[in-house]
Amino acid sequence: MANALREVPLKTIDGKDSSLADYQGKVLLVVNVASKCGLTPQYTGLESLYQEKHGKGLEVLGFPANNFKGQEPGSDSEIVSFCSTNYDVHFPLFSKISVLGDDQHPLYALLTEKQPVATGEGPMREKLKAYGVNPENQADVLWNFEKFLISRDGEVVGRFAPDVTADDPRLVAAVDAELAKA
Known about the structure:
Elements lengths: L1 H6 L2 E2 L5 E2 L8 E7 L8 H12 L4 E7 L11 H12 L18 H9 L8 H7 L17 E4 L5 E5 L8 H12 L2
Parallel strand pairs: 3-4
Antiparallel strand pairs: 1-2, 3-5, 5-6
């Protein structure tokens, strides 16, 4: 599985070919992001986490997705402008993808297959039900800002619900545990 994850073709937000292999030996936090979501302020915490732990081997990787109520309508260039202007984002961003449905990107198909349950699952799902959002498949990405933690050797070792923020002790402890491994 680890090699399959690394081999999935990706595009950086500026159009360059990429893959997770570019981050070999790093701990990765893969996040589907959106600019017009109630959770969008999480960019601040993600950037703080990135700044604090990047030197220790953490990469936060943002994947804009427009799967949830049209909350990421912008073009790649508009997304870059929004992120830099409003949140001073320095962590890598990738070209907009789909994280679920018939056009789900292969990266997210592998991530959800490998880690079908999220830590912190529950409160956000209940909130969304009040808005008529009730995904049938429990393994599907629930909403924007869901987070997948990938070890240095490319294994998916954690998944965190959208409302688990970057400073949540559960997420920080999981990141620190992975960074501590050689």
